[in-house]
Specification:
By secondary structure, the chain is an alpha+beta fold. The chain has three domains: 1-41, no CATH class; 43-84, no CATH class; 91-184, no CATH class. The protein has helices at 28-42, 109-114, 129-138, 154-164, 170-184, and strands at residues 8-9, 12-13, 44-47, 59-63, 66-69, 91-97, 100-106, 120-126, 149-151. A hairpin with a 2-residue loop joins strand 4 and strand 5.
Length: 186
């Protein structure tokens, strides 16, 4: 049985049919009106026009009053306090090129990975050169001589899977770590 939109405007029922999958007795037009109304308060998650200057995230929430970073809630357009030093978050990164894995470290992974030829960013692990050296030793039997590149093996693959557990995108995880550092120092 077809449902009809429940909205009555100026004493007249809308009369349009409701999509069978709709959770409410509202036509597509009135669902969109309701969505836009609610969006004024809860915002719309979307890609920021420019990366967040506080944490580097590209994910934002758009409100009628402007954009907020979805990770650290920095308001787009606000100028950072020059007295605040940007936080430093060292990471060990795992990238793949063909069938090889590079394990490296950086305090600025966007800049570093932009200089490296790779097919895929596999994971980040919060840590510095000491952790990187421990990982090199841990997976050393499959290391290509005098490089930071390793042949993929079951142990290394399992380690990367553990790092990726619950993490859809390593960059989102990195942005979270940055925003946590900002919050700690604010």
């Amino acid at each position: 049985m077809s449902r009809v939109c429940a909205i009555v405007e100026r004493g007249r029922p809308c009369g349009l049919l409701v999509d069978d999958a709709s959770p409410l007795d509202l036509c597509v037009h009135h669902l969109a009106v309701a969505h836009d109304w609610v969006e004024r308060d809860v915002g719309r998650t979307d890609v920021l026009p420019t990366p967040c200057i506080a944490c580097g995230s590209r994910l934002g929430v758009r409100y009628p009053s402007g954009w907020l970073c979805a990770i650290c809630e920095w308001r787009l357009g606000e100028v950072p306090n020059p007295d605040n030093v940007p936080p430093r978050v060292d990471v060990v990164y795992y990238i793949r090129f063909d069938d090889r894995i590079k394990i490296g470290t950086s305090a600025n992974p966007r800049q570093r990975l932009a200089t490296l030829r790779h097919d895929e960013l596999l994971a980040f692990e919060r840590g510095n050169r000491q952790l990187e050296q421990r990982r090199h030793a841990q997976f050393g039997r499959d290391r290509f001589a005098r490089t930071e590149w390793f042949a993929m093996n079951d142990d290394l693959a399992s380690h990367i899977v553990r790092l990726r557990d619950g993490v859809e995108d390593p960059w989102t995880q990195y942005a979270l770590w940055l925003s946590q550092e900002i919050a700690l120092h604010s």
